[in-house]
Amino acid sequence: MIQFEQFVLQNGLRVVVHEDHSTPMAVVNVMYDVGARDEDPAKTGFAHLFEHLMFGGSVHIPSYDEPLQRAGGENNAYTTNDLTNYYCQLPAENIETAFWLESDRMLSLAFGEKSLETQRKVVSEEFKEHYLNKPYGDAWHKLRKLAYTQHPYSWMTIGAELSHIENATLEDVKHFFFKHYCPINAILTVAGHVTTDQVKELAEKWFGDIPSGKKYIRNLPQEPRQTAPRRMEVHAGVPVDALYTCWHICSRTDSRYHATDLLTEVLSGGASSRLFQSLVKEKQLFSNISCYHFGSIDPGLVTIEGKLVKGVKIEDAEAAVETEIQKIKDTVIEEKELQKVKNKTESLITFEDMSLMNRAGSLSFYTLLGNANLINDELARYQQVSAAEIQQEAHTIFNPDNSTTLYYLSNQQ
Amino acid sequence: MPNRQLPPETKDAIAYTLELKPFRKFILDNGVAVYAIDAGAEEVVQLELVFKAGNWYEPANLVASATNYLLKNGTSQKNAFHINEHFEYYGSYLNRACYNETAALSLHSLTKHLRQLLPVIQELISDSVMPEAELDIYRQNMKQKLVVNLRKCDFVANRLIDEYVFGIDHPYGKYSSTIAYDALQPEQLRRFFDRYYVNGHCCIFVAGRLPADIEPLLNKTFGSLPLNQIPIPDVTHPVEAATEKKYRIINDPKGIQGAIRMARPFPGIHHPDFTRVQVLNMLFGGYFGSRLMSNIREDKGYTYGIQSYIQNHLHETAWMISTEAGTAVCEATIEEVYKEMQILREKQVEEGELLLVKNYIIGTILGDLDGPFHILGRWKNIILNQLGEDYFYKSITDIKSITVKEVRELANQYLQPEAFYELVVV
Q1: Three-class DSSP category at B225
Q2: CA-closest candidate to residue B256, choices B305, B329, B335
Q3: In angstroms, rounded to a whole number, what is the distance separating the alpha carbons of residues B174 and B165?
Q4: A354 and B108: CB-CB below 8 Å?
Q5: Which ipTM value was assigned to this complex?
Q6: pTM, 2 dp
Q7: What kind of architecture, by CATH, is found in domain A230-410?
C-alpha cells in the first residue's frame, strides 16, 4: 500500500506527496499532460524537442543542470506519445533547489536561439542514431503510419520526419510552450524524506504565483474501426527477415485493459511463454519473438514481432503465429497458466515499487489518468481477470480485419 | 513572490556522512561464503551465485558464455521448458550472466516463494546436462543475432577498440564469431560445467527481506555440494596491445553516423590513483554536465551523447571515450576531445566546478544506496575485486579530499593524446 496525499494550488497545479522517511533523498517529478499525440501533423517531434529545450535555461536561471548537480542531484526526462515527464532526485535537505528550478522553467523558458539551434542538431543525431542508422530502425515509423489513418499515434515521438525538427522556429517553440507547459496542465509529485506540510509551503512559494494557463482540452481525431487487413512489404539491407503484426486494442483506462495485458504475458512473457516455446524452441522458425504493447492512454496496439531463422519462408512463419493465435482463441487457458501470469505481474509491481523514483512516476501517471488511487488497485484488477476474459480479448483483438502486417525482408540473400 | 534570481541555500552533498550498511557473512559447510543484507520495505529477495567461471578460464572462445547460458536449458530431470515454467510460475526471474572472471546465476523473487525455488537452483548448478539440441538452437540464434549486430557501427567499434587495447587472445579483447559458435561442442561445455560449476568456486550474495532461517536454508540447499573443494587454477593472460594507434573503418558504406572510440590502457581498480581518477573522469566526460558533453553536445550539437568511463575489469583496464556522431563531424569531434584533454592538462579547474562534481558524485551515491539490492551491489563490487572492507569509506575520503591541483596533475599524467587508441567505425 503506497500512502500519499493530494492537493491543488489556486492556479490548478495538482500536487501529490508521498512520504518515505527510510531514505535521505527526495524525488521531484513534474509531468506535463502533453505528448506527441498533441502535435500538429506538420510539426511533429515537438514534444520531444521540447524535452531537450527544457534544459537550455529558463527565464531566471541560465542552466538547469548545474545548480541541481551542485546540490547533489541528478535528473532526466522522457517523452511518450501521451505525456512528457521530468524528474530529479537529490538529498532531501536540498529539495528547495528542485522547486526553484522546476518552477522557473514552468514559468517560462529563456528561449535562446542558440539553445534551439544546438538541440535541433542533437535531436537530429538522436533521430539518426536510433531510427535511421540501425537495422530495422524505421520499422515502427512504417507500422504506425499504416495502423493509424486518423489518430496522431501515426507518428513516433521523435517525429514523422527529420525536416519537422530541422525547420522548427523559435515562434513555433514559444507557441507550444505556452499552450502546454503551465500549472493547469501539469502534475507535481514529491516523494521521499519530506512532509506534506513542507511540500505545501514550498509548492505555494515557488509555483503559487505562476499564471494558471489555459486548460488544454484534448480533442483528437479518433481512429475509425479497421475493417480489412493491411499489409506492407519492405526490402532493405538487413541481414534477416522480420515479421511485425499489430492489432488495435482498448485504451489504458478501459476495463478490458488488464485482460489485454495478461494476454500478451501468456503469449510472450518469458521463456516458458507460448510463442517462445512453440516458435523459437519447438518449430525453430524464429530466432526471437515477442508480443508487447505500449500501455498507451488512447486505444493502442498489441504487436507480435519476430526475426526469422535464415531460410524460413515468411509466409510459413506468419502461418505458425496464426496457429498459436487460433489456439488461444479456441481453448480457454488453464488455471496454472493464468496463475503464472498473475504471479509474474505481482512480483513485477512489487519490484517496481522498490524504487522511490518509480513510485513518484507512477503516482503522477495515475493522477494524469484521473485517479492516483489506481496505484494501489492495480494488482487487484489483475487478480480479478478470468481465463474467459482473456479468451474473449483474444477473440476481439486477433481478428484479421483488425491487423496490420509488415514484412521486413532482407535484400541480401 | 519569491526572489527567483536567488538560488535557495543548499547543504553540500559532501557534508553528508555516507553509511554503507554492513553485510552479515556466514560460511556454509562446504566453505562457500554468503554475504547477506537484510533490509528493505518490500517482501522481496535477490540471490546471486557467483562462480569463478568467466571467459578467463575457458579452453576455447565462447565456452564460458555458452555454458552459463545453457544452465537453464536442461538437467537430467527437467527440460528447459519445465525449468522456465517453474521459475515463472512463482513470478520470479532467474538470470544468468557471464563476465570476464566470473559467471553468475541470479534470482529475483518475492520472499514467500524462495523455498520453492532454491532446490531447482541447486539442481541447475549440479545436474545441468547441456543438451545438444539446446546448444544447436542457441548457436543458431546467437549467430543470427551477431549478424544483425555486426551491421551496427557501435557494436563493431566496441569489439575492435577492446582488441586494440588488450589483444585478440586476451579475455578482455576477444569477441564472438560465427566460426567460434560453430566450433562449440556439448562435451566441451559439459567438461567446463563440471570443473567450474559442479566442482567450482562459488560465493553467494543475498539481499532483501530475508526469511529468519536464511542461514540453515542456504546451508541445506548448497552447503553439501562439492563446491570450493578443488582450487581453481591460477591463469594469467598477457596483454598484447596493438602497435598502430589510429583506425578508420567503413562497416557500412551508406552509414550516416560514425561510432568513435578512444581508449588508453589504465592500471586498474587497485591502483592508488583509481578513485581520484574517477573524479577527473566525471569532470571530463562522466556526467551530463561534463566538459565533453557541454562542448560536443550542448555547444556544438555534434552528438546525442558522449561519455568517458573506466572499464570495470578486475585486472588491467582501459579508460574509454565513446560517442556516435554524424559522419561529417567525426574528425571534428575527435579534435574537440583532444582539446578538452589539453585544457584539463594546462588550466587548473575552478574550485566551484570541482565542488560541483564532488557534490554530484556523493549525491549519486546517496541516491544509489536506495534499498537492499543496491547496498549489496556496492559490497559485491568490493568483495569480488578484493578491495578490503574499508574501501567504501576510503574512496569517499578520496573523492571529498581531491584538490584542483591534483586534478590537473592526474590530467597531465593520464590524458595524453599519444596514449590513446583512436577508432571511427562508419
Answers
A1: coil
A2: B329
A3: 11
A4: no
A5: 0.91
A6: 0.92
A7: 2-Layer Sandwich (3.30)
